[in-house]
Design brief:
There is one protein chain. By secondary structure, the protein is an alpha/beta fold. Helix content is 22%, strand content 32%. The protein is built from nine helices and 23 strands. It has helices spanning 88-105, 165-180, 223-231, 289-303, 320-325, 339-351, 364-367, 389-396, 410-422; strands at 7-11, 14-16, 20-25, 28-33, 40-48, 52-62, 112-116, 127-134, 141-146, 154-156, 195-202, 208-215, 238-246, 258-264, 268-272, 275-279, 310-314, 331-336, 357-361, 377-380, 402-407, 425-433, 443-450. It has an eight-stranded mixed sheet with strand order 7-22-23-21-20-17-18-19, sandwiched between helices. The chain has a seven-stranded mixed sheet with strand order 10-9-8-11-12-13-14. The longest helix has 18 residues, at 88-105. The chain is globular and about 65 Å long.
Length: 456
């Protein structure tokens, strides 16, 4: 009889989206997070049910036949990537098959037009959020990503291969600077200490860099010395801004009680499809800028001819999609809950000389009630949780002929598509875009048109 906390050996049969491994053990279905099809793993038993077991992988005993590359030196220790050891061709096939199988399980007949690869696979990220800590209790200061499956310990990611070399240089210089001065990291268990996070953003087009040091207010540092150290670094890009953010919240999240501008300006400028976009410390922007150009090109293609048409861009972020649509549309209205993102979207529209774009700050659930116009097209790009269940029917009530749904989570996308189908909309085509090479994530773009005889 199998018992909780018992260690068992398994061969992974399948990994379903999102990163859910499956295997068999003594006739029972075993479910766990992560893994690669074909791996032999050692796992610890968790919850036990009549016909299934939940488990946690604690060791990979034998690699999968799919694992043909060495990957990153931090692979297995860092919790950032899952597909470092796959060839990129196999990674794309895996992601496409996972989404196809998900749609099939949900009984959705969707014409999936394949997966677009990322234009770059190494050094593609334009933003990193590093955490200060230690790799072991009482050890030297570390600065990097959380260890896989651990909440408190962090890995010194000295040679991460999904980021630009400037990120690695800045990260190590900052870690070394504070380590030599014995500045303590913020201990999230005890709520004591100073150093919390380091956030770096770098525009792939302009090479502009923005650095944000996040700390508690429990001590002071020589912030001018910190600034001069950064400005003396020999980088490929150019530091345009240095910020110091104070966060005394108890949670391990990056937020601001107050922000000080230490050097330069509080934004960088990225160029996407010929338009300029200011990116501020806390505004959302796709982490793969070159991939974003491909993604938004697919959105434009799916939208079709929008000459002299009214477009709604819901969950609009910094207004990237809205402004890409604006040059050919009659008018675009965007709604976004993050006020800083809306402020930046308005500035970006002015920067790009667009006067037919309007941005509204607020929750889509409430703000759609204020829109009285009838759009021809609605573009939806919600967070991972998908469209709020109370908002989805309000959105469909606008009765546009066309919806383009951009999703970073196929699970909530499938749930939402069922509601659209109940209201008379059909999926005409769908495409995947790999915005996050080496990770389990993938973007989906769905075109839906109205096919009912009478709109509700």
């Amino acid at each position: 009889m199998i018992k909780k906390n018992e260690t068992i050996e398994l061969i992974i049969d399948k990994v379903e989206f999102p990163n859910k491994g499956k295997a068999k053990y003594e006739g029972l279905d075993v479910k766990f997070k992560g893994g690669i099809e074909g791996q032999k793993v050692r796992a610890r038993v968790g919850k036990i049910r009549k016909a299934s077991i939940e488990a946690k992988i604690i060791e990979v005993i034998e690699n999968s036949p799919l694992e043909k590359e060495s990957g990153c030196e931090h692979f297995g220790l860092c919790g950032g990537c899952s597909y470092q050891t796959l060839s990129y061709e196999d990674e794309l096939k895996l992601k496409e098959s996972q989404v196809k199988e998900l749609f099939e399980r949900e009984k959705l007949d969707i014409n999936l037009l394949g997966i677009e690869p990322s234009p770059i696979r190494v050094g593609y990220r334009n933003k990193m959020e590093y955490t200060f800590g230690d790799e072991e209790k009482g050890g030297p200061l570390s600065l990097g990503l959380h260890m896989k499956g651990r909440f408190y310990e962090t890995v010194n990611t000295t040679d991460c291969n999904i980021i630009d070399d400037d990120f690695n240089l800045i990260r190590e210089a900052v870690r070394d600077y504070f380590d030599k001065r014995n500045v303590p990291f913020y201990n999230t268990r005890q709520h004591k200490g100073f150093l919390r996070h380091l956030v770096i953003r770098k525009a792939q087009g302009s090479r502009e860099i923005l650095i944000n040091l996040v700390s508690s207010s429990q001590q002071e540092i020589d912030i001018d010395g910190f600034k001069e150290m950064l400005l003396d670094l020999k980088l490929d890009g150019e530091i345009k801004g240095i910020l110091h953010t104070i966060n005394d919240g108890l949670g391990d999240v990056i937020k601001a009680d107050r922000i000080s501008l230490v050097y330069g300006r509080d934004y960088i400028v990225e160029k996407v499809l010929g338009l300029d976009f200011k990116i501020s410390p806390f505004s959302f922007f796709q982490t793969n800028s070159l991939g974003a150009e491909k993604l938004y090109s697919i959105v434009k293609d799916f939208a079709g001819n929008i000459d002299d048409k009214l477009v709604f861009d819901l969950y609009s972020g910094t207004g990237t999609i809205a402004q890409i649509m604006a040059p050919v549309a009659k008018k675009v209205i965007g709604i976004e809950i993050v006020e800083e993102a809306v402020k930046m979207a308005r500035e970006n529209a002015e920067l790009n000389g667009l006067d037919n774009v309007e941005f509204i700050a607020g929750d889509v659930l409430k703000m759609v009630d204020q829109l009285k116009e009838s759009p021809d097209l609605i573009v939806i790009d919600p967070p991972r949780d998908g469209i709020h269940p109370k908002a989805i029917n309000k959105i469909i009530d606008f009765n546009p002929q066309v919806f383009v749904y951009v999703s970073c989570n196929p699970v909530t996308l499938a749930r939402d598509i069922k509601v659209f189908k109940e209201r008379g909309y059909e999926v005409r085509k769908a495409k995947l875009m790999d915005m996050f090479p080496r990770t389990v994530h993938v973007e989906s773009i769905i075109l839906m048109t109205y096919c009912g005889s009478k709109k509700k």
